[in-house]
Amino acid sequence: MATLLRPFSQPPTIKSSPINHVRHTPLLSSPKPASSKTRRLRVQSGNLGNFLDLKPESKLGSLDIDLSWFHPSDRSGFDLIVIGTGPAGLRLADRVSRYGVKVCCVDPSPLSMLPNNYGSWVDEFESLGLGDCLDKTWPMTCVYIHDGRTRYMDRAYGRVSRNFLKTTLLENCVSNGVRFHKAKVWEVKHDEFESSIACDDGSEIKASLIVDASGFASTFIEYDKPRNHGYQIAHGILAEVDSHPFDLDKMVLMDWRDSHMGNEPYLRASNSRIPTFLYAMPFDQNLIFLEETSLVSRPMLSYVEIKKRMVARLRHLGIRVKTVIEDEKCLIPMGGPLPRIPQSVMAFGGTSGIVHPSTGYMLVRAMALAPVIADAIAECLGSARMIRGRALHHRVWQSLWSSDRKRVREFNSFGMETLLQLDLNGTRGFFDAFFSLDPYYWQGFLSSRLSLRELASLSISLFERASNTSKLDVVTKCPLPLARLMGNLALEALS
Ligand SMILES: Cc1cc2nc3c(=O)[nH]c(=O)nc-3n(C[C@H](O)[C@H](O)[C@H](O)COP(=O)(O)OP(=O)(O)OC[C@H]3O[C@@H](n4cnc5c(N)ncnc54)[C@H](O)[C@@H]3O)c2cc1C
């Protein structure tokens, strides 16, 4: 169905069903290692602004699952070690172990609940057979371009049940015989046909292949080029509120309105240069997840600035936070160079370059790519084959970063570079045109489903639909990124 264009938001129309589970100066600051923290808070807030002062009350809990623990007698017996039991590591361990490949997952806290509030398009999760892992869905999504213009999209969005997702992945691993070791990996070493890890508990474990799925802050993966990432940074709260103005049947993908900055000239000026938007999941009239987000910035927009903008926005929207149930700091490196390909450690998840460079989304991509990499690993390490060392590393890296995927990533990185050039008005114009595209294109772009040829068509349509100001923006501000894109595509074609 085509995207609908309507004036400013209507009052709530559909009451959604209750959810089943409930899931920080200067303007610019220098990048720090990526982090994500979700804290559980239960402190009352007295006025519109002071929810930022609330202190965490308790930590994330643990899942109650009986894991098969690593035993010292297993020390030399693994085909594969996966570092990290985040969604990427567990999904890969699950898929590889289905082939009878012996896998050990190592994490300081394998049973910890996943910390992040993940969202996804419903069709994406369903196509992976993981529809059950969504604990709340919204039939529509909307994007507020500015006060007088809102786009409504017929694409359902869902909130991922972190507990259910992790439980499902862990249980699959357990039933396939995956072992778990509770430790932090300090070091990875390599011989010609075997690798090993050294952990903080003094243990050393050997395997034919090590996969690093330890997230964005990993230090095990090497790069040939300087890492000029963009950064997505956001502050999110799951909050109990007196009321909020959002429709319960619509997930707010982006709210670019800036009327809340009327009395805040400094905030308005900085937001005009480096804009932030609100991402909101309204669960009911009194429960809502709110996240003030910088889509991409370089250098990174300061966390303090983001929080100030959020305070001003909530005040303007009349949202009084009574209780903060959870909060999260979201920091996602986007774009930048890929790791050196191949290298002795295989990367997967946040550390592998699969984050969408224009959006910061990764979860579904990791879920979808794990079986592809698992096939390659099983081909090499499965019972019938004996492919080890360089040939193994080459094969698994190629399975993730084929030429086609690299070219598409180049294009998506160009998207990120374009977004980095745009101010608030340019960004609004961009998304206004983007969400007016044929859904095949905008949905395909966001879901990394388009071929390079389709991406080229998308760009032409986008340019045709853009306002004259946006066209001028692209022509004047983007020749360098465009030239870089063409150069990199040419190099990739020659390699
Ligand atoms: C706050 C936040 C919200 C996000 N929301 C979304 C979203 O809505 N949708 C989406 O698609 N993407 C989202 N992302 C991006 C991305 O999908 C997530 O970051 C995702 O969790 C990355 O998965 P991962 O398994 O690669 O790494 P992580 O989830 O970070 O897991 C890494 C694991 O490795 C372990 N580990 C780290 N170091 C070591 C070590 N030395 N030894 C052993 N273990 C180690 C950690 O304990 C952790 O368990 C979000 C990111 C953040 C930060």
Automatic annotation (TrEMBL):
GO biological process annotation, one example: carotenoid biosynthetic process
GO molecular function: cyclase activity; intramolecular oxidoreductase activity; oxidoreductase activity, acting on paired donors, with incorporation or reduction of molecular oxygen
Region listing for Disordered, in residue ranges: 1-40
GO cellular component annotations of the record: plastid
Keywords carried by this UniProt record: Carotenoid biosynthesis, Isomerase, Plastid, Transit peptide
Low complexity bias spans: 26-36
Position of the signal peptide: none
Pathway assigned to this chain's UniProt record: Carotenoid biosynthesis
NCBIfam families xrefs: carotene-cycl
Record's protein name: Lycopene beta-cyclase
